[in-house]
Amino acid sequence: MNILAQISKPSVLEGSLYGCAAADHSDVFTNIFQDDTNIAIWQRVLSSHLLISAKKILEKWPAIKVSEVVTPEEVNKTIENIFGSDQEWTILCKDITRLVDIFCNLFSLNHARLKLTTLNHAMCPRFHVDRIPCRLITTYQGVATEWLPNMLADRSKLGTGNQGKPDERSGLFDSVAGIQQLNRGDVALLKGETWENNLGSGLIHRSPRLPLDSKRLLLTLDFASN
Asked: Which helix (H) or strand (E) covers residue 148, if one does?
């Protein structure tokens, strides 16, 4: 029997077999430096104030598409220049500032590429891997990212290997019960293909299908070259 079929979703499978480390504090991110970890998840519940802030931003700016190279010292000012200094927005700005600080300090970066985007469709609907070192991702509003444990995936079925078949019929995985999903508010580090010695082991993930007439507010942080 598929062991995943015994687990109620949403679930997080921890340990070297699954390449996942998860905890309710940000210290879990240090596990990303372990060779057998390709996703580290800070499982958190967003405060009511932060949820309201995200909702208000979506109401006022329903088509957000922010892409900026930021530093931990200047990110709050950068975001306030876009959204203004109203208390309703600053709650979300402060949380983003905190995440930029954590991300840059963890990887000894002077700056990061910040993207804050509103989505009304699945941006990357097929399972795939990214040719990057590592990405931070969190969903403030809407459904969150789906991913597959390494041991449950046939990587030969990624990309053109799927022969045009949907993920669920391509042979990429044996059962939909193996698909894992982040929760709204979770902050995850996704190790990519260009992380040192990680070629062929980047986290397999995809954007979730969105319910009709719903929106997703997504934040990502990446390494930046300038």
From this structure: strand 146-148
Of the candidates 44, 45, 42, which has an alpha carbon nearest to the alpha carbon of residue 26?
42
- In the chain, the domains with their CATH numbers are 17-223 (2.60.120.10)
**78-106 burial by CB neighbour count: b if 16+ within 10 A, else e?**
bbeeebeeeebbbbbbebbbebbbbbbeb
Low-confidence ranges of the chain (pLDDT < 50): 1-10
For the stretch 91-118, pLDDT in tens is 899 999 999 999 999 999 999 999 999 9
What is the longest distance spanned by two Cα atoms in the chain? Answer: 54
Please give the Cα distance from 33 to 70 (Å, whole number).
23
Q: What distance in Å separates the CA atoms of residue 100 and residue 198, rounded to the nearest whole number? A: 24
